[in-house]
């Protein structure tokens, strides 16, 4: 017995276990660091490291290691990105963007909310960063209407964050898919609703702070202004391009767009364009059918397999238009599949070794569960402001599970709070979203935009966790 009354062997075993687990956890962070410095795909490194650590340090059979690869999430990602890649290939998404913008008219006051909805809709189509296609359209329009570019930028940023948590989009798939893998009951529609409400509140705050109430109706022909000046890459990143593939060059391509240069050559207005083709009409019907099926099955108390639904509707469109279906296969988001799969496989190895449980116990030793939840959300927001949000969701959701296992905090509430906190900071200019918004404004506004987005993004690191834990987690614990 030692002085504290703890048997010496037990104390030694605990110390050894802590060192063992912490070293394995540090290797997890090390892989993130190496992949960032060397600019290589983190999913590939994670999977390879998971196999090495599992075989040589955890004595796990290779079948058990590979069995940790999340096949259900793979089906979700492939099915959804395949379906929306078809919609991109046959031009349906381009036409939807054009029609939506043409309906705005000349009411400047509604533009932030229109671009929020438009960005959210595109972001919900599988790949969140697809919503960035409206940035080089929205910024010049904001300039023409005398709107603060910060307001337009935040409308696009919040819309992207909201749509990303749709049951058909990446952040939503990773968040609720990982939660389900761990046995946590989390409705995809609940997560989506929380994300939409939070981001709408942020947009309303931006509307007040950046002159939205002073906007007046301006009689400018919006359709004539944008005409056919939509960039040729407008839907190339909307679906299936792969986060790792376009994160590095999207800012360059947008910065090179003529949309910042003022009036330029126009080759016709929206009104002069051809109507929807038969294939595009069928695609719109399938898109509505996919969303309707998800909502209907959820309301019926069942758990919709969105990946399977994506494959089903994708198969219908492939039969209608084989050319678009075949080209869509190459646009499946394999990069994100590898990213999420590698991280979750490694987290599975860490769970087997007890490292994840140790981190949960450490958070639990804070003494107050709500403080532990706040710390986890703060970490999620801070890291995500500089790194891949998808990677953070795949890594941090499992690390929050031991805290949920104590029964003190409802799992669905904590996962929703953690996921949204990791997303609302993405307008930071240190991330792809923020950098794209800065690159999309006129050159004389970029320094101001960078400064304001930095302040906004860093403030969300604190405001987001405090607000979400206070309004979501605390009430869920009481009720």
UniProtKB/TrEMBL annotation:
Xref: Pfam families: MatC_N
Domain of life according to the entry: Bacteria
Q: Which UniProt keywords apply?
A: Membrane, Transmembrane, Transmembrane helix
Q: Where are the transmembrane segments?
A: 40-58, 65-85, 113-139, 151-177, 189-210, 276-300, 306-322, 334-354, 366-387, 456-478
* Domain Dicarboxylate carrier MatC N-terminal, first and last residues per copy: 28-164
Q: Does the keyword Transmembrane helix apply?
A: yes
- In Swiss-Prot or TrEMBL terms, this protein is called Citrate transporter
Please give the organism: Rhodococcus maanshanensis
Q: Which InterPro entries match?
A: MatC_N
């Amino acid at each position: 017995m030692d002085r504290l009354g703890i048997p010496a062997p037990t104390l030694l075993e605990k110390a050894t276990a802590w060192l063992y687990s912490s070293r394995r956890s540090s290797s997890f962070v090390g892989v993130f660091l190496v992949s960032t410095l060397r600019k290589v795909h983190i999913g590939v490194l994670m999977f390879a490291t998971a196999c090495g650590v599992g075989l040589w340090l955890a004595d796990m059979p290779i079948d058990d290691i590979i069995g940790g690869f999340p096949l259900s999430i793979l089906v979700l990602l492939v099915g959804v990105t395949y379906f929306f890649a078809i919609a991109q290939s046959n031009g349906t998404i381009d036409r939807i963007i054009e029609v939506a913008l043409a309906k705005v008219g000349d009411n400047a006051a509604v533009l932030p909310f229109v671009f929020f909805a438009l960005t959210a809709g595109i972001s919900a189509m599988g790949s969140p960063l697809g919503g960035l296609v409206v940035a080089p359209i929205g910024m010049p329009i904001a300039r023409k209407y005398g709107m603060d570019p910060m307001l337009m930028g935040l409308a696009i940023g919040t819309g992207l964050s909201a749509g990303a948590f749709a049951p058909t989009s990446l952040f939503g798939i990773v968040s609720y898919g990982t939660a389900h893998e761990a046995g946590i009951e989390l409705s995809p529609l609940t997560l989506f609703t929380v994300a939409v409400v939070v981001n709408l509140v942020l947009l309303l705050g931006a509307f007040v702070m950046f002159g939205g109430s002073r906007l007046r109706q301006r009689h400018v022909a919006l359709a004539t202004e944008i005409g056919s000046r939509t960039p040729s890459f407008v839907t190339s990143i909307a679906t299936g391009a792969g986060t790792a593939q376009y994160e590095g060059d999207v800012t360059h391509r947008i910065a090179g767009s003529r949309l910042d240069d003022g009036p330029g050559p126009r080759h016709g207005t929206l009104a002069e364009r051809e109507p929807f083709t038969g294939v595009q009409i069928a695609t719109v019907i399938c898109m509505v059918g996919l969303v309707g099926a998800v909502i209907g099955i959820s309301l019926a108390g069942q758990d919709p397999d969105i990946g399977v639904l994506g494959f089903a509707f994708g198969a219908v469109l492939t039969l209608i238009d084989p050319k678009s279906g075949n080209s869509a296969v190459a646009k499946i988001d394999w990069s994100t599949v590898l990213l999420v799969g590698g991280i979750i496989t490694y987290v599975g190895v860490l769970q087997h070794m007890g490292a994840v449980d140790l981190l949960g116990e450490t958070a639990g030793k804070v003494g107050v569960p709500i403080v532990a939840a706040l710390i986890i959300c703060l970490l999620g927001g801070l890291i995500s402001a500089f790194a891949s949000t998808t990677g953070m969701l795949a890594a941090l959701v499992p690390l929050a599970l031991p805290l949920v296992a104590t029964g003190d905090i409802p799992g669905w509430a904590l996962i929703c709070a953690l996921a949204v906190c990791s997303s609302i900071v993405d307008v930071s200019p240190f991330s792809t979203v923020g950098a794209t918004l800065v690159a999309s404004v006129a050159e004389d506004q970029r320094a101001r935009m960078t400064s304001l987005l930095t302040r906004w993004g860093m403030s969300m690191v604190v405001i987001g966790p405090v607000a979400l834990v206070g309004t979501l987690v605390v009430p869920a614990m009481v009720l």
